[in-house]
Structures are given as structure tokens and as C-alpha cells.
Design goal:
mainly alpha; 55% helix; globular
Length: 448
């Protein structure tokens, strides 16, 4: 049996790629580890989906475990902190906590719009997850939906296009125009529910340990992925947070933490600093450095989206809680500049893929850049914003969900073509069948 994302022999290649990102690749000891791994027959990447589940030789697994631990002992030369005080110190524009000029509480229409937008953006991206951007465009054009202005559909899709670009098999059954019946279950929505549950159960002083216990209570290990699956495994072996984020975890800068934190922003309307702190407490269970910054960036944007008048204010709030010298800050600033200067969004995405195309499709940095670009180029237009996030072709449902939550909040709702039956399916205890209006009401109760 193969259990992806946790088997040591599958992790070494990912850790070596992480070393190339965080500045360790040119160190002689890292190059030596890479040479040893390849000389022993180790793969640069795990087998493709559907490959034969042959067990590796015991010697290879033991070597992988040893090399992972050796790599972990080699510090990065780049100053990208993960500790709270160090992150704040690295942010020269760190926002003041709270805002004296705002009305206490959040506009109910904006909070509901945020939930509606997150659901709509997620469902739009679900059927084309893992399809590259050229395939997404071909599907949309073949069905008269380019530029994207509505749900994807299999109606009228030529058979050759369907064969060349097959839908995401788990999502197409409930996220195409012809079969959407309410809001289907998705991890991008389940994690929002978990964040709300954490706040309801433990209050605004919740800890990383509270988040860990919530995972163990509500999420089977097979339903979390990449960094979350590694952190989950670490919890089960008795490793304590925040070491759960670093022990044999090459995915610690991938997108998982970014998708978990919208509710922390909505619970802190107009207060990106506190929203970022909440996100940091959650993210450090499974992520470090840019993986944590992505979560803080998103939570801060969600907080500001409840009282801002423009996407510019929102993105600036997000950048204010990201260390200025980090790779994430550089990627977002670049994306914002290009999106603001280029009228054709396809050319914006060309630029992002040229710069970040070497990253995994669920990495934080490329997806955060795409999220920022889609927001800026969309200029507050809900449809253009989520369409841009999905057409970018990386983590389509996650990027669509985050952009949707921000654009939905700014607009105080979503256009009619993106409305679904107000019933959310979830396996999280107490949430199956819940209405978004009820989620919005409970979210507002959590605001400080």
C-alpha cells in the first residue's frame, strides 16, 4: 500500500526542492545528500498516481529517513523567521491592533457575502483542479464559457476535449452546472468550519494545541494532505506542536495553511493584526516561514475586506503582516505591479507562470501571487476575480475560494449566477446541511 505525502522515500525529493527554494541548495552538504540519494536509486519525485504500489527496499527507506534528518539539521541562510516576535519585527508596516474609527462588529451583509464568495469560488474551481491552464481554457472555450462567466459544464463538450482534459473525478459529480445541488463538501470549506468550531469551543485565546485536537477529533488522516498529513502523522507519534510543522515535513511552505484561515479574518473585522495572529497560531501546527506568511496574508486580507472600500486596501493590509524581505512578499508585490499595469489578464498569468512555474501547483508562493493578481486585476468585480483565480490553473478551488471570500465581502454578496441552494454538505460534526446565513451569524458572534 502506498500512503502518499508521508513515506520517507517520497519526501526526500520534495525536501531537496525545498532546499532549492530556501537557499540551501548551493551548500556542499546539501549537494552531497542529493548525490547520495540519486546514487542509491532514490527518485526525485514520488510515483505518479496509479503506479504500481511496490514497497521500496528497506535500505532505501532507512537511507531516506537518515537523509531527511540530515537535511533538517542544515539551516537556511535566508532570514525568513517563523516565530511571532521575529515576524512582527520583520514587518516595517505592521498594522496597529484594532481600529478606533470602525463601527464595532461586522456588516452582516459583508460576512454573508464572504461565506457565499468562498463557496462559489471553491465550487467553480473544483471540477478543473489539477487541469493545467491551457486545458481549463480549452474546456471553457469549447462550451462557450470563455472568458469564464459561469459554472463549468460537460454539456456540449467535444469528446476529444473531455478525453484530453478529464475532470477532477471526485468533484465533477457535484460541481458542474448540471449537477450542482447545494454546496458540496470540500476541504477548503471544511477548514473554515473547523476554524469557526475552534473559536466557538475555545474562544479567542485558542492555542495551536486546540487546533491540533480539533483535527484529531474531526478529520480522518486520509482526508488531509501534504503538510497537514505530515503534521497529523507527527501528532499521532507524540510529537508536539510546533515541531509537528518541521519534523520530516517538506511541504511546510505549501498552501495548506493559507486555505484554513478566512474565518480568523472575519472574526476580526478591520483588524488585520489580530487576524494575522490568529492565523499564525493555526498555521504553525503544520507550516513554517512562507507557509505561515501565506496564512497571515490571507487572514489579514479577509479582516480588511469587511470594512475596506477597494481591493488595494485589502492587499496592502495583507502585505503589512508579511516580512518585507520574504519570498512571499516579493512574489505578491510583483504580481500586484503586473496586474495593475497589464490589461490582458492572460498576459498577467503568463508572467506568473514564467516566474513561479517551477513550484508545485499547491505551493503557497505561486498561489498567493495569483490570488493577489486576480484581486487587483478584477478590481472588485466578483465574476472577473474568481474567474481569473481559477483560469490561472494552479490550485483552482483554493485560489478561487480565497479570492471569492474577499470579493464577496467587498461586494456584500455575490451575483445571482453564483448563488447555490443554501445548504452546505460537510462531515464536520454539527455542520452538515447548515445554511451560509447561519454560518455568518455564528461568525459575527466570534468577533472581538
Amino acid at each position: 500500500m502506498r500512503l502518499t505525502w508521508v513515506q520517507p522515500e517520497d519526501l526526500v525529493g520534495h525536501e531537496l526542492r525545498q532546499a532549492a527554494e530556501d537557499g540551501r541548495w548551493d551548500l556542499p552538504e546539501v549537494r552531497d545528500i542529493a548525490a547520495r540519494w540519486h546514487a542509491a536509486g532514490g527518485q526525485a519525485a514520488p510515483p505518479r498516481a496509479g503506479a504500481s504500489p511496490e514497497a521500496p527496499p528497506v535500505r532505501l527507506r532507512r537511507l531516506a529517513e537518515d537523509l531527511l534528518d540530515r537535511l533538517a539539521a542544515i539551516p537556511s541562510p535566508l532570514p525568513e523567521p517563523s516565530g511571532w516576535n521575529e515576524i512582527v519585527a520583520a514587518c516595517p508596516a505592521w498594522p496597529a491592533r484594532g481600529r478606533a474609527d470602525r463601527v464595532p462588529g461586522a456588516d452582516p451583509a459583508r460576512v454573508l457575502g464572504a461565506w457565499q464568495g468562498r463557496a462559489a469560488g471553491c465550487v467553480l474551481g473544483k471540477p478543473v483542479e489539477k487541469i493545467p491552464r491551457e486545458g481549463i481554457r480549452e474546456i471553457a472555450e469549447a462550451t462557450g464559457n470563455w472568458p469564464i462567466r459561469g459554472w463549468f459544464t460537460a454539456r456540449g463538450l467535444p469528446p476529444e476535449t473531455a478525453r484530453r482534459w478529464p475532470w477532477n473525478r471526485r468533484s465533477a459529480v457535484n460541481s458542474l452546472a448540471e449537477n450542482i445541488d447545494g454546496i458540496p463538501e470540500d476541504d477548503d470549506l471544511n477548514f473554515a468550519l473547523l476554524a469557526l468550531a475552534v473559536l466557538e469551543r475555545h474562544g479567542r485565546d485558542f492555542t495551536t494545541g486546540n487546533v491540533a485536537q480539533m483535527w484529531l477529533d474531526e478529520l480522518p488522516g486520509g482526508r488531509v494532505f501534504t503538510a497537514e498529513r505530515v503534521a497529523y502523522r507527527n501528532l499521532l507519534t507524540g510529537i508536539e506542536p510546533e515541531e509537528t510543522a518541521t519534523y520530516r515535513n517538506p511541504f511546510r511552505e505549501w498552501i495548506g495553511a493559507l486555505i484554513r484561515v478566512d474565518v480568523y479574518g472575519w472574526a476580526n473585522p478591520g483588524d488585520p493584526a489580530t487576524a494575522a495572529e490568529f492565523a499564525w497560531r493555526d498555521a504553525r501546527l503544520s507550516h513554517t516561514a512562507n507557509g505561515v506568511y501565506g496564512a497571515m496574508f490571507t487572514a489579514a486580507m479577509c479582516a480588511r475586506s469587511l470594512d475596506a472600500s477597494s481591493v488595494t486596501e485589502v492587499v496592502e493590509a495583507g502585505l503589512s503582516v508579511v516580512p518585507a524581505g520574504s519570498r512571499l512578499a516579493a512574489a505578491v508585490r510583483d504580481a500586484v505591479a503586473v496586474a495593475g499595469a497589464e490589461r490582458d489578464f492572460e498576459r498577467v498569468v503568463d508572467h506568473l507562470h514564467a516566474r513561479h512555474g517551477h513550484l508545485h501547483w499547491v505551493h503557497t508562493i505561486n498561489n498567493a501571487a495569483l490570488i493577489a493578481a486576480a484581486l487587483v486585476h478584477g478590481g472588485g468585480d466578483f465574476t472577473a476575480s474568481i474567474a481569473g483565480a481559477v483560469a490561472g490553473g494552479w490550485d483552482t478551488d483554493s485560489a478561487g475560494a480565497t479570492v471569492g471570500s474577499i470579493a464577496g465581502a467587498l461586494n456584500g454578496g455575490v451575483p445571482g449566477q453564483w448563488s447555490m441552494k443554501d445548504r452546505l454538505t460537510s462531515s464536520i460534526t454539527g455542520f452538515d446541511g447548515i445554511a451560509l446565513g447561519e454560518l455568518a451569524r455564528r461568525t459575527r458572534l466570534m468577533a472581538g
